[in-house]
Design goal:
InterPro entries: BetI_C (IPR039538), Homeodomain-like_sf (IPR009057), HTH-type_TetR-like_transc_reg (IPR050109), HTH_TetR (IPR001647), Tet_transcr_reg_TetR-rel_C_sf (IPR036271). It comes from Brevibacterium celere. With 216 residues, the chain is mostly helical. It has two domains: 67 residues; 140 residues, Tetracycline Repressor, domain 2. Helix content is 77%, strand content 0%. It has nine helices and no strands. The longest helix is centred in the N-terminal third of the chain and has 38 residues. The N and C termini lie far apart (81 Å).
């Protein structure tokens, strides 16, 4: 039988655990609301008060969790990016040929697949030119995407699906991501010229030139 002191300590520990869990959930809600606000109105006019209003909170509570608007924005982009990366990692870990997985990861990365509008990423990249914390967030996300692509390229080479080539898988992953980013920007700004279907065709042609054995 527990003594009163031990029982009180046990209840106190559970209360602290619940408090930490509630705080983590609240942070996630605030991050999701921040991404929604950025998508709706853009970063230039983003206010902590607008994020708070989406959740019926006071702006001071948002600042309590994130200290500054800059920290809130950086964590919101990290939150959105990690959501997309989690899906890409699940695809990459599935038991299928590397080419199938690579195609699906790329389809997910492009505007037709990602859970978030590409408007927020273009907006964020622009802001990141003048915000070192935000730029660091994007650099970390970029490294993760390149690592996923490079691992699939290596797996495809090992399985004989892709040509061995002279360039490293990392170099090809870097070129691929740069190409996809450029396509996504064009498709976002000029959808009448670069449709999602056309974007998909061009992405596939690029991959074939990079990865498949020459037919000549």
């Amino acid at each position: 039988m527990q003594s009163a002191g031990v029982e009180a300590a046990s209840h106190g520990g559970r209360a602290k655990g619940m408090s930490r869990k509630q705080a983590a959930l609240r942070r996630e809600e605030i991050l999701a609301a921040t991404v929604e606000e950025i998508e709706a109105s853009g970063l230039r006019t983003l206010r902590v008060a607008d994020v708070a209003a989406r959740l019926g909170l006071s702006p001071s509570l948002v600042i309590y969790h994130f200290a500054t608007k800059e920290a809130l924005v950086a964590e919101a982009f990290a939150h959105a990016g990690e959501s997309d990366l989690s899906r890409a990692r699940r695809i990459a870990a599935s038991s299928r040929p590397a080419r199938e997985k690579l195609d699906e990861v790329i389809a997910w990365y492009m505007p037709a697949g990602s859970t978030r509008s590409w408007k927020i990423w273009i907006d964020g990249w622009s802001a990141g030119l003048f915000d070192t914390e935000l730029r660091s967030t994007f650099a970390a996300l970029d490294r993760e995407w390149k690592a996923i692509l490079a691992s699939l390229i290596e797996a495809g080479r090992d399985a004989g699906e892709f040509a061995a080539g002279t360039d490293s898988a990392q170099a090809i992953a870097t070129r691929t991501l740069a190409y996809l980013d450029g396509l996504a920007i064009q498709a976002t700004f000029h959808p009448e010229e670069v449709s999602r279907a056309l974007m998909g065709e061009w992405a596939q042609s690029f991959l074939e030139r990079e990865l498949l054995p020459s037919r000549t």
